[in-house]
Every structure is written in C-alpha cells, then in structure tokens.
Amino acid sequence: MTQTITIDPVTRLEGHGKITIQMNDRGEVEDAHFHVTQVRGFEKFTEGRPFYEMPALTARICGICPVSHLLASAKACEAIMSVRIPHTAAQLRRILNLAQMVQSHSLSFFHLSSPDLLLGMESDPAHRHIFGVAAARPELGRAGIALRRFGQHVIELLGTKRIHTGWVIPGGVAEPLSSAKRDEMLAMMPEAYANIGLALAAYKQIADKFRQEIGVFANFPSSYLGLINEDESIEFSDGALRLIDSKGAIIDDGITAQRFTEVIGEAVEPYSYTKFVYYKPLGYPEGSYRVGPLARLNIVKKMGTPKANQELAEFKQIAAGPLESSFFFHHARLVEVMHGIEKIEQILADPLILDKHVRATAGVNRLEGAGQIEAPRGTLNHHYKVDDYGKITWANLVVATGHNNRAMNQGVLQAAKCYVKDGKFTEGALNRVEAVIRCFDPCLSCSTHAFGQMPLHMTLLSADGEIVDRVTR
Amino acid sequence: MTEAPFEVKTLEIDGREVSARRGQTILEVAREHDINIPTLCQMEGLSNVGACRLCLVEIKGSNKLLPACVATVSEGMVVSTNTERLQKHRHNILELLFAERNHVCSVCVSNGHCELQSMAQDQGLTHVRMPYRNPNLPVDASHERFTVDHNRCILCTRCVRVCGEIEGAHVWDIMGRGIDSIVITDLHEDWGESSCTRCGKCVQVCPTGALFDKSKIGSDHPKYPDFLPYLNLMREAR
C-alpha cells in the first residue's frame, strides 16, 4: 500500500511551504517534495511601470530582505541607464547590504533555527521557539534580538525606515550619510561583536551533538555559486559570480549580471510555484547547485576581515574541500555575521563616506539591463527590458530560493528516508524534515513574518486517501 | 437697476453669524472665518469647477446640496458644513475615488505628501466598501522631465486649469466621458511630443502622484502650489 505524508504548512519559515513524503508498499520513503504553494506575480504586474519604480516595487516582495531586491533592482536600472554610481553611494549601499545580512542571518539563526539547535530537535514543541530559547539561555536570546536590532538600526539610520526604505534609487542613494549617524553606528559595534562572539561559541559547543543531522541534512556533493572578489575574498554587492564543482574546482568564473542570463536557466516542476534554477551548459537537473552562506564560504579563499578570516579558517578545517552538509549553513551564517559587522566598521572609516555626491542621473540608454547581488539566502538577479521611454516590457527575477530548490527537495528526501521508518513517524522526525528546509532559510514569498504560530499538520494517507495517522501542533 | 458693487450679505455658517460681499462663494466666506470645508479640486489661484463634490454643504430650506466652491452667498442663508449627512457623502466620494483607479500609497511617489491620502485621514476613512475596479491604465513616461500615471489621477482638472489659465498653453485637457475620462496632452499625443512648455506647473498643482517629477523618485516629493496666488498678483500689478 502506498502512502503520502503531508507537512502543511512548514513552520518557522519565511513564507508558506508544504512537504509531501511518498511511501511505497513496504512502508519505505520513496520520494519527497517541497512545495511552494503561492504565486506572487511581480514579474507580470510590473509590466508597464517606469523602470525607476522597480526598486520600490520589487522591494515589496519581502519584508525580511527588501534591501536585496532594492539593490539588485537598482543595479539592473543602472545597467539600463548605463551609469556607474558614485563611490560613496556604492559604499553606503554596501553597508546597507551587510546590515541586512546581519539582521536576516540573526533572524534565521536565533528566531527560526536556534530552538532546534539549543533546545533539541525532540524538545517540547510548545516551548521550541525563540521565547523558549530566551527562557533556557537568556544571554543567547538577548544576543539574537540585539544582533537583529543592530542590523535593522543601521538600515534605519541609512534609509530612515527599517523596512522598504526608499533610499536606494537608480543612480545611487537619495541622501548622503551624516557624521552623527555614522558615529551612532560606530557606537553600536562593541555590543555587536560581543553578541556574535556568544553565538559562535554556543554553536561550536552544540554542533557535535548533531552528527546524525549533519549526515542527512541535504548532505551530498553539489556545485556552488556565489559572488567573489578578484582577490578571492567574499563579496555581497559587486564582483562577479563563480561556480565551483563538488571538489572545489572552478566550472565557470567571472559571471556578470549580463552573462548570468546567458548561462543560468530555470526549469519548472509541476509541484511547486518556485522554479528550479540550473547552469545551462550542464543542463537540468545535472546543472543544479547550491547558493547562500554555505556556497559562499565554500567558494571564497578569505573573508577579507581579520576576525572572520580566523572563523573561515576554522570552518574550512571541518573537512577537506567544500562542506557538503547543509547543516553547515548555520555555521556559515554566523561567520558571515561576524564579517558583516567588521566590514561595516571598515567602510565607515572610509574618509569619503560622508561625501555629498551620492547620485548619478541619466535616462534610458539601453533597452535591457540586469543586476545581481548576494542576498542573505544567496544569489539574486533582476533582469529587465524596457521600451524607449523606460517602461518595463519584460521582467525576470531569479531568487536565491530557486537556486536552492532542487537541493532542498533532495535534502527533504534524504532526511525523510532516515527519520520516517516503517510508515511511522514521531514529532521529532517531522521537525527534522522541516529543519532541513530551515537550514537553507528559504524566502518563499517573504510576505509573512509569522513563525511558530501557524498550525502544523502532518498526515499519513493510505493509497485510497484514508487518513492512517495524523500529528497536529 | 444694478446692485451696489460692495453690497454686504449676512448669513449663518455652522451657527455663526457672518457677513460677506456679494458674489463671494460660501467656501471663501467660510475660510475667511476659519471654518474648514474639505476640498480636493479647488485651488487658490485657479478658477473653480466644483468637480470633486467634497465641499458640498447643506442650505436650510433646500433639499439640494451645494458645492461651496462655486455656490455664492445670499442674504439670510443658513449653511451647515459638517452634518452627518455630509460626512456620509464625503466618505462615499472618497471611497469611490479610491475604488475607481489604482491608489497604492506604499509605492507611490507622493506617499506622505498626497492630498487624497491626507483627506482620507482627515475624514477618518478606514476602509473602502466598494470593490476596487483595478483598471489597467497607461503611464506616459515620454516627457523628459515628468511622468503622468493615470492610475493615480482623480480628474480634479487642476492641471488642465493651471496650464490654460496661468501658463496660457492649454496643453492639458479631458478626453472621454464619465468614468472613462482621462487627462490628455494636446490631441491625445504623447506628453513628450506635445506642445508642453516644460514649466512644471501642472506637476506642482497635482494633488496626488499622478503627475510627478522623474528626478524625485525615491526621495520625498512634496509639491509647492503656493506660487499660484503670487503669480496672479504679480500679473495684475503689471
């Protein structure tokens, strides 16, 4: 008798998703799928809008990482305008992007995943949330909230709003930085360093307890894609993309936003509204790869800031070559937070950071343009075509979750095979299958921020649709 | 026999005895006495057309509501500007304005500086009961400096009036009837191809984000229509 287990919705995620697990006659897991069940339609309904509205419009895709869309969109617009933005504007945007990296990674690690990591995968689901963490480990609960606040406050100081700032505009930024705001950012640094130090220490303490999870949480060889600088240090805002294989050898390098659209394709599967992104020369699904913190750390040789460099060296010692388990996304995220804080401090020391020239102006000089950046979850590319007056005629957004889509599906199958046995599952098993998805910190629709409040249903169905078993919390 | 030019009329607005000159509108008299009547299409320095109907007032003894911006005072008139009936009508008018086109404040260039938005706040509008029409209206970005987004236009005709009456160019006009009306430049040519003098007065008087300056995207886009009375004054002084 074949059976289907459905986890709907998957909790502690940004957006709405669903997992189904197919069982065969022998009660073994045969296949598993991760479904994204919503369609948003941004690429379609922005048609006809002036291109310079795109940053503000596409930022509304997400309340967690609006900055990513703002930046990728502004860069695509600048390709259409054919302008290079002033140095200070580029540096200020870099701070904005790093601040978002810090706040988003903190949200993912502390609010969404630390309940599993610090309280245990099998712990009481009634307390397995950020408040449970705050009760059990108050210093870590506080550190998580404070780190997120640090990132959000830097964003607010730059763009006057924490969410959906209108400060990033095609050609640069709307307002220069004042010395008072710079000093306020610098004053927050010591606390931020202390908090990320606490988080890294706590993670390293508990990582050993999760050997089994490390073994089956999307743990397989794959290629990795991410931005990198010419000196092989990590990059989030500029640089070009590098694709490496599972052994770390370079498959393709120097992929600019323009060339991205030539070498990257999108496949569609009937069970999900999220596309499956792949490297065209290798085809689908062979050309699938992973993006995000783990991919970036696997690709780069150094972080480019002292403390993060040390952390990266330690990270790279876990195994020879690229790390294959997606469980290490958590560790990579914390290393990137450390880098983000250090890099913001470095950029703020730039003597030109208070310069008033922060915007280049131009009209439509090309009818097509693309922009790419590294979002917290991985590579983000915006690609637009416009008419002679700059109105959008076509738009395509390739988001991080699309790149990771196939890996997430494979990971769910791998974990389900390990934890769902003989057609039976426990609450802890169910939580582990979800936790695989949480490693990737996917942004499914990004329109909701609710976590830990949604009901979770996992249902075991017989071949004729009869409910065999059900777990609800 | 002609009436004296400065004949004084006495009337009552919201229970207050006020005096006015013959030919003055109820709105003018109310403002002189700090009595607030909401308006959207009316603008100091332009002719009055009574298009938006927000300034409707009640006159004792008449079942008909009158637009205060064009209705002139008469002796012994008893005017009410803020009755329950009027508030209901104003809510309806605002809701219809929001439902008619696509007013998405969060991504609008005029967010925070929009007269329609402020009016809705002032009138305590919390939601729109009618279904939105969500029309697919065009955006004309052909002008080198300005853009018109018909989705945000409330057909107040301030642009039409300022262009004809102050600039003297009469580039803007209204095309179509009723709910299908839109503002056009020249004989419905692209704005960038029209006889526009690029003065920008229409952008400054537009109450919403329908007409906006391309260079102001992403930053605050307040408008400065206060120049109108001064322009008129200076011209008369010549």
Topology:
The complex is a heterodimer of chains A (473) and B (238).
Chain A: E1 3-8, E2 17-23, E3 29-36, H1 42-45, H2 54-59, H3 66-81, H4 87-119, H5 130-136, H6 138-159, E4 168-169, E5 172-173, H7 179-187, H8 189-207, H9 211-216, E6 223-228, E7 240-244, E8 250-255, H10 257-263, E9 264-267, E10 276-279, E11 289-290, H11 293-299, H12 306-316, H13 329-348, E12 368-375, E13 378-386, E14 392-398, H14 400-419, H15 427-440, E15 457-461, E16 467-472
Parallel strand pairs in A: 6-11
Antiparallel strand pairs in A: 1-2, 1-15, 2-3, 4-5, 6-7, 7-8, 9-10, 12-13, 13-14, 15-16
Helix pairs in contact in A: 4-5, 4-6, 4-13, 4-15, 5-6, 6-8, 8-13, 11-13, 12-13, 14-15
Chain B: E1 8-13, E2 16-21, H1 26-32, E3 56-59, E4 66-67, E5 78-80, H2 84-100, H3 115-122, E6 139-140, E7 146-149, H4 158-167, E8 172-175, E9 182-185, H5 201-205, E10 211-213, H6 227-237
Parallel strand pairs in B: 1-5
Antiparallel strand pairs in B: 1-2, 3-4, 3-5, 6-7, 7-10, 8-9
Element string of chain B (H = helix, E = strand): EEHEEEHHEEHEEHEH
Number of domains of chain A: 1
Strand content of chain B: 15-25%
Helix content of chain A: 40-55%
* CATH architectural label of chain A: Orthogonal Bundle
What's the count of strands of chain B? Answer: 10
Mean pLDDT of chain B: 93
Question: For the CA atoms, what is the radius of gyration of chain A?
Answer: 22 Å
Please outline the major beta sheet of chain B.
5 strands, mixed
Cα-to-Cα separation, first versus last residue of chain A: 27 Å
What global shape of chain B is seen? globular
Structural domains of chain B: how many: 2
The CATH topology name of chain A reads Cytochrome-c3 Hydrogenase, chain B
- Tell me the radius of gyration of chain B: 19 Å
Number of H- or I-type helical stretches of chain B? 6
Name the pair of protein chains with the most residues at their interface, and give those residue counts. Answer: A-B, 22 and 16 residues
Number of strands of chain A: 16
CATH fold descriptor of the largest domain in chain B:
Alpha-Beta Plaits
The CATH C-level name of the largest domain in chain B is Alpha Beta
Q: Given the structure, what is the number of helices of chain A?
A: 15
